[in-house]
Specification:
Elements (H helix, E strand, L loop, with lengths): L3 H81 L2 H23 L5 H21 L2 E4 L11 E7 L9 E6 L1 E4 L2 E4 L1 E6 L9
Parallel strand pairs: 2-6
Antiparallel strand pairs: 1-4, 3-6, 4-5
Helix pairs in contact: 2-3
Length: 201
C-alpha cells in the first residue's frame, strides 16, 4: 500500500520529468532557432563579402583599362613628338628656301658675265637644302597643272586659261610643304576658272 507521502513523491517526480522534458524541448527549439539565425547571418555576410569583392574587381578592371589608355595615349604623344617635333623649326626655315629659289630664278634672268657660276652655286645650295629637308621627311608641294585640292592648296586668285582643265592649278605662287604627311604650309596657287555658260539671249 502506498501512503500519501509516496503519492506526493510520485507526483513530484512526474512533475520534475515533465519540467525537464519541457526544458529539453525549449532548449531544442532555441538551438534550432539559433542555428537558423546563424545560417541567415552567415549567408548575409557571404553576400556582403561577395558584393564587395565584385565591386573591387570592377574598380580594378576600370583602373587597368584607364592605365592602358594612358599608356597608349602617352606612346602616341611621344611618337608624334618625334615625328612632328621639327614643325615649328621647319616653318622658320621655309622662308630661307623660298628666298634661295627666288634668287635662283632672278639669277637665271641675269645674262651678265660670270652669272653662270653664281646661278650654278645658288641652284646647288637650294638643291642641297631641299635634299636635307627631304631626308627629314619634309616634302614640297608643287602642284602645277594638278586639280585644286583645298586640303593642300590655298587659292590666291582665279584665272582664265582655255588650254588647261577648269579647276586645275595654272600657277604656283609659293610651294607648300608637308612634314611626314602632315601639312605644314599650303601651296599658294592660281586656279583656272570653270567654263561659264552664258544664258541664252
Amino acid at each position: 500500500m502506498t501512503g500519501p507521502e509516496d503519492v506526493e513523491s510520485n507526483k513530484t517526480d512526474l512533475l520534475g520529468e515533465d519540467l525537464e522534458s519541457d526544458q529539453d524541448t525549449q532548449s531544442n527549439l532555441n538551438s534550432d532557432s539559433s542555428e537558423e539565425n546563424l545560417k541567415d547571418s552567415e549567408e548575409e555576410e557571404f553576400e556582403k563579402v561577395h558584393a564587395e569583392l565584385e565591386k573591387q574587381m570592377d574598380i580594378t578592371l576600370r583602373a587597368e583599362a584607364e592605365l592602358q589608355n594612358v599608356l597608349k595615349r602617352t606612346a602616341r604623344e611621344v611618337e608624334n613628338a618625334h615625328k612632328y617635333g621639327l614643325e615649328r623649326f621647319i616653318q622658320n626655315l621655309l622662308p630661307v628656301v623660298d628666298s634661295l629659289e627666288k634668287a635662283a630664278e632672278a639669277s637665271a634672268l641675269d645674262q651678265s658675265e660670270g652669272s653662270d657660276t653664281a646661278i650654278e652655286g645658288i641652284n646647288l645650295c637650294c638643291k642641297l637644302f631641299v635634299d636635307v629637308l627631304e631626308k627629314e621627311g619634309i616634302k614640297a608641294i608643287d602642284p602645277l597643272g594638278e586639280p585644286f585640292d583645298p586640303s593642300e592648296h590655298q587659292a590666291m586668285s582665279m584665272v582664265e586659261n582655255s588650254d588647261m582643265e577648269p579647276n586645275s592649278i595654272a600657277a604656283v605662287v609659293q610651294k607648300g610643304w608637308k612634314l611626314n604627311e602632315r601639312l605644314v604650309r599650303p601651296a599658294m596657287v592660281m586656279v583656272v576658272k570653270g567654263n561659264e555658260t552664258k544664258p541664252p539671249e
